């Protein structure tokens, strides 16, 4: 294992923000990951897990413990069953499944980060979530000291949530198994209206896998959601806030606020989210609260391409970013009575 001290962490994140780690260890095998975790736990040393760094907001003071960078590799395809090592680059893995003619994750193309992070957040976009294809997660259980295999049901997936997120200090994901579909070169049924519209098909239709992937990549790039070192709109964590899910009572109160603020004919986005619940759009809330694309005058600003992305324009600090995030949260709360929740994991700081 490669070990560094007083190691910069900002280059390991898509925000390019944050102070150094007291110690940075890079593990390239499952055994090295487990050994590093066991050593930190035995010594009582704080531990920070880093994959692709696309969902991390690290404080300017850095991390006074061991940062473990998981750089394991492994792409194994057996029929329609795919097993990925936690350190595999997610967007590359998606491309390889499309090349293999297998459907199920093609609309998750272009999402930055590592495969091991996908079940933690139940990563989803453009009508797909990994929870619909994950069959098992192999993880190291820090409570028992054993490597365990968790079924899909045991992962307790929900919208941008899972057992791993609910118990952040327990499991370290080592490998993820997916059950994909051989649809003779076609995609899974297209669910997302924007994707279907761009493809010129109806929701529920199937299209060639490569067409689905390329369309999603173009849509994401147009919103600054595909990493590009020369484009500061992509110096972000993608969507900074999750879409709020409201009870029927809370949604009714919100709807009344919308009409009061925007006029009697105004209607907020509303999507079914299970019995007695409705999901609305964080991007819509941000925009209608006055935080438009490109908002801000400092080194941290809202993306010029998408209101959900907060970005580092090149010289920002984490405190600059958090100040902008807090301003947005307060503005949306004042306007509509909804408190937005950050999607990225914060390290050493809070919103």
Which percent band covers the strand fraction?
A: 15-25%
Going by helix content, strand content and strand pairing, the class is: alpha+beta
Report the count of strand segments.
18
How many helices does DSSP assign? 9
Oligomeric description of these chains: single chain
Helix content estimate: 25-40%
Mean pLDDT over all positions: 97
Describe the structure.
By secondary structure, the protein is α+β, with helices and mostly antiparallel strands. The protein is 27% helix and 23% strand. It has a 5-stranded antiparallel beta sheet. A 4-stranded mixed beta sheet has the order 1-2-5-3, covered by helices on one side. The radius of gyration is 20 Å and the shape is globular.
Element layout with pairings:
Blueprint (H helix, E strand, L loop, with lengths): L1 E6 L13 E7 L2 H14 L3 E4 L5 E3 L4 E8 L4 E4 L2 E5 L4 H10 L18 H4 L2 E2 L2 E2 L4 E8 L4 E6 L11 H4 L4 E9 L13 H7 L9 H14 L22 E3 H15 L8 E2 L4 E3 L2 H7 L11 E3 L7 E3 L5 H19 L8 E3 L4
Parallel strand pairs: 2-5, 3-5, 4-18
Antiparallel strand pairs: 1-2, 6-7, 7-12, 8-9, 10-11, 10-12, 13-15, 14-15, 16-17
Compact summary:
It contains 9 helices and 18 strands.
Please describe the structure with a list of short key phrases separated by commas or semicolons.
351 residues; alpha+beta; five-stranded antiparallel β-sheet; 9 helices; 23% strand
């Amino acid at each position: 294992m490669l070990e560094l001290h007083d190691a910069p962490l900002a280059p390991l994140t898509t925000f390019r923000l944050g102070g150094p780690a007291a110690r940075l260890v890079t593990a390239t095998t499952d055994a090295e990951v487990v050994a590093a975790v066991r050593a930190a736990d035995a010594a009582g040393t704080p531990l920070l897990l880093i994959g692709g760094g696309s969902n991390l907001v690290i404080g300017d003071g850095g991390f006074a413990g061991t940062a473990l960078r998981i750089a394991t590799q492994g792409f194994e395809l057996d029929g329609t069953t795919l097993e990925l090592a936690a350190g595999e680059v997610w967007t590359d893995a998606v491309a390889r499944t499309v090349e293999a003619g297998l459907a199920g994750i093609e609309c998750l193309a272009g999402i930055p980060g590592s495969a091991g992070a996908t079940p933690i957040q139940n990563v989803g976009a453009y009508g797909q979530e990994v929870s619909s294809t994950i069959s098992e997660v192999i993880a190291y259980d820090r409570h028992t000291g054993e490597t365990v295999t968790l079924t899909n049901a045991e992962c307790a997936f929900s919208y941008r949530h899972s057992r791993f997120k609910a118990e952040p200090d327990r499991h370290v994901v080592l490998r993820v198994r997916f059950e994909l579909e051989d649809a003779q070169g076609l995609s899974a049924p297209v669910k997302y209206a924007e994707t279907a519209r761009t493809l010129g098909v109806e929701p529920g239709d199937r299209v060639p896998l490569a067409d689905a992937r390329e369309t999603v990549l173009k849509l994401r790039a147009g919103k600054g959601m595909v990493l590009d070192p020369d484009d500061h709109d992509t110096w972000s964590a993608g969507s900074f806030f999750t879409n709020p899910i409201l009870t029927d009572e809370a949604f009714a109160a919100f709807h009344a606020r919308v009409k009061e603020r925007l006029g009697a004919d105004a209607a907020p986005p509303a999507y079914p989210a299970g019995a007695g619940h409705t999901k609305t759009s964080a991007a819509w809330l941000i925009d209608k609260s006055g935080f438009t694309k490109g908002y801000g005058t400092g080194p941290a600003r809202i993306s010029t391409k998408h209101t959900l992305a907060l970005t580092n324009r090149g010289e920002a600090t984490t405190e600059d970013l958090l100040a902008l995030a807090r301003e947005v949260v307060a503005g949306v709360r004042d306007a509509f009575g909804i408190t937005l929740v950050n999607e990225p994991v914060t390290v050493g700081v809070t919103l």
